[in-house]
Specification:
The structure is a single chain. The chain folds into four domains: 226 residues, Alpha-Beta Plaits, CATH 3.30.70; 133 residues, 3-Layer(aba) Sandwich (Rossmann fold), CATH 3.40.50; 117 residues, Tetratricopeptide repeat domain (Serine Threonine Protein Phosphatase 5, Tetratricopeptide repeat); 130 residues, Alpha Horseshoe (Serine Threonine Protein Phosphatase 5, Tetratricopeptide repeat), CATH 1.25.40. By secondary structure, the protein is an alpha/beta fold. Helices cover 51% and strands 16% of the residues. The strands form two sheets. Strands 1, 2, 3, 4, 5, 6, 7 and 8 form an eight-stranded mixed sheet that branches. Strands 9, 10, 11, 12, 13 and 14 form a six-stranded mixed sheet that branches. Strand 7 and strand 8 form a beta hairpin. The chain contains 25 helices and 14 strands. The relative contact order is 0.06. The two termini are 46 Å apart.
Length: 632
């Protein structure tokens, strides 16, 4: 791998988040997420209007960069002015109020990522802001021109975590009904005009913040997430993005639901392998199953430029499949087709649909991608049907359904011994049985899983799910090959750049191997692909920050996972440790009490001996947090 290019520079960094987002989600998760997303899209548009660059847009936070301090402040005030009017028209309590912090500081640009003292300082200052308010650093105050109709309130020097010297902070408010100046004109090169006085101030500011920057960069590991390459563009997608909605089962027999779901999943899997296309993850699109939808709303909520809808009617040996590709911006059909065929032609139908999508969106495939999207796991229709039945049972995620799924997969490979993905699914069933304690001999289940997944790798190493499954099995405690697991997770992502769970699991593996600072990029990428992501994404994101020493950020994110799954022990332990290390001992002790109330009866030593966190320093830190929380 080529050595990463590093470049430092001075930048104006804006960080924004929604105040009280957790409470909003608790009231109405779907509506809260929709309003938060709409809010940040509006803010992102305003940032771009004032010549800013959106570095990261995820969940309930936005990170942006400007060349001029006045542009950053003007963009914030214009957004807040318009947003207040929007909030005033809402009649319920789900009002996403945005607080903003802006700092002038040094950042480090490493190829397509940006981090550094300026990023962290903006986040720290934002936390001092009121809901719907704006705070800036003293360096920003000195750099602002007099054209802005604002008032400054000096909040004095503030102790900011990660900075040795106190940082001066000002609160900014818009003066009366004075209008915010529109964006200034740009130079021919597209860069903002900067006065000599402004340049002199910037130079002086570099010297002022040098000591704080030096202190920050010498800490163990970065204190703030980097912005991934995929998120460094403006909010408008630079490549087509598709959300494939669950196909409707039009058969008279509700038992045929597995077939409609299976066709949907296979289409998602196939088009996900196209690098020029962003494909929203199954977990997000299946959350709309059974709902009456406006595709324009779906596109906005999931960040998709196009939506695919379809229906399946399976009767005897015939199948009717109706499918349509829709432009999510206006609801207009781009392409639609109906197929009335013999069931044995189902694979040809799948190939035809993929070809039509590629043509309609003018996508260009590499030779490798052409091979992957045209490959079927089996030509045996009966084996394929059993495979889809097994996958449906597996999705119910309980011991009884896993037993049925295992039987279906075993029948599928009996009909086609070269069915690589069916072998991998069977391997995963054994591994999950061990993970959840549904078998007596966990180590034997893991070894059986390893043997089966290695067989599937031999049959076809180019199926993303197989490499992902191999990664998960290699990381099992009884096997303990976490470094090889990282390689396999990366291989799955290379084969399928849209594999959200593979990105997220790679983030988990970085934690397990003592590289928490690497977790943020893949987990935020996963969140972008899978907007309605499962609880363990929040957990992974928060747990990474725990090991990076950012305990408040860790607690905030793990809390979101706990809210969605309050009975999961490992979430409670991570949350308790984060709270304790953040100094919130009463809250931490309460979490331990809740654990015991849920039936958790392990001692500290027993729990630590079983935790998958094997890195010595991380293990020691985790122990310290749990001990402070009161686990003994």
């Amino acid at each position: 791998m080529a050595e990463e290019h590093l470049a430092g520079k001075l930048a104006v960094i804006l960080h924004a988040d929604v105040s009280g987002s957790t409470q909003m989600v608790q009231q109405d998760e779907r509506l809260a997420h929709q309003r938060i997303q709409d809010t940040f899209h509006l803010l992102a548009d305003t940032v771009v209007e004032y010549s800013g660059r959106v570095l990261e847009l995820r969940g309930d936070a936005l990170l942006a960069e400007f060349e001029r301090p006045s542009d950053a402040v003007a963009a914030t005030l214009k957004f807040q002015s318009g947003h207040r009017k929007i909030l005033s028209s809402i009649n319920d309590d789900l009002k996403p109020e945005v607080r903003v912090g802006i700092a002038l500081g040094e950042v480090v640009v490493a190829d397509n990522t940006i981090t550094g003292a300026g990023v962290v300082m903006a986040q720290r200052v934002e936390q001092l802001s009121d809901p719907g308010g704006l705070c800036i650093t003293a360096a920003m105050r000195e750099s602002l021109s007099g054209r802005l109709p604002v008032d400054f309130e000096n909040l004095g020097p503030k102790e900011l975590k990660g900075f040795e010297e106190p940082v001066g902070v000002y609160k900014i408010t818009q003066r009366g009904d004075a209008a915010i100046p529109p964006p200034e004109s740009q130079t021919v090169s597209g860069k903002s005009k900067v006065s000599l006085r402004h340049l002199a101030v910037l130079t002086a500011v570099v010297l002022i913040i040098a000591a704080a920057t030096a202190y920050w960069t010498n800490q163990q590991g970065p204190l703030e997430e980097t912005a991934s390459a995929e998120l460094t563009a403006a909010p408008t997608p630079v490549r087509p993005s598709i959300a494939v909605l669950p196909f409707t089962n039009m058969s008279s027999d509700p038992e045929q639901e597995y077939f409609a779901d299976g066709m949907t999943e296979d289409l998602i899997t196939d088009i996900s392998r196209i690098s020029g296309l962003k494909v929203i993850a199954r977990h997000s699109t299946f959350s709309y199953k059974g709902q009456k939808l406006d595709v324009r709303d779906v596109g906005r909520e999931l960040g998709a430029s196009h939506v695919i809808e379809g229906s399946v009617r399976k009767a005897g040996n015939t199948v009717r499949i109706t499918i349509q590709l829709i432009d999510a911006s206006d609801g207009q059909h781009v392409w639609a087709e109906r197929y009335d065929r013999e069931l044995r032609d189902v694979f040809a139908i799948q190939d035809n649909v993929i070809g039509e999508i590629i043509t309609a969106l003018a996508l260009k495939l590499t030779p490798e991608e052409e091979k992957r999207v045209s490959k079927h796991g089996t030509e045996n229709l009966a084996a394929y049907d059993l495979f889809m039945r097994g996958r449906k049972q597996e999705s119910y995620f309980n011991k009884e359904s896993f037993i049925e799924a295992q039987q279906f997969y075993e029948q599928a490979v009996a009909l086609d011994s070269n069915y690589a993905e069916a072998w991998a699914r069977l391997a995963q069933i054994h591994a999950m049985n061990g993970q959840f304690g549904w078998v007596k001999d966990i180590a034997a289940a893991d070894q059986r899983a390893l043997k089966l997944v290695e067989k599937s790798i031999e049959l076809d190493p180019d199926i993303p799910f197989i490499r992902y499954s191999y990664s998960r099995i290699l990381a099992r405690d009884s096997i303990g090959q976490q470094k090889r697991a990282i390689e396999e997770a990366r291989a799955a992502i290379e084969l399928d750049p849209n594999y959200a769970d593979a990105h997220a699991y790679l983030g988990q593996l970085y934690i397990l191997t003592g590289q928490a600072e690497k977790t943020i990029e893949p987990i935020t990428t996963a969140m972008g692909i899978n907007p309605n992501f499962p609880f363990w994404y929040h957990y992974t994101y928060g747990f990474a920050y725990f090991f990076m020493g950012e305990y408040e950020i860790a607690a905030e994110n793990i809390e979101k996972a706990v809210e969605r799954n309050p009975n999961v022990f490992f979430l409670r332990t991570a949350y308790a440790a984060s709270l304790a290390m953040a100094g919130r001992l009463d809250d931490a002790e309460w979490q331990i009490d809740e654990l015991h109330g849920l039936g958790f009866n392990k001692t500290l030593e027993e729990f630590i001996s079983e935790t998958p966190v094997q890195h010595p320093a991380y293990r020691s830190l985790y122990r310290e947090g749990l001990e402070k929380a009161g686990l003994s």
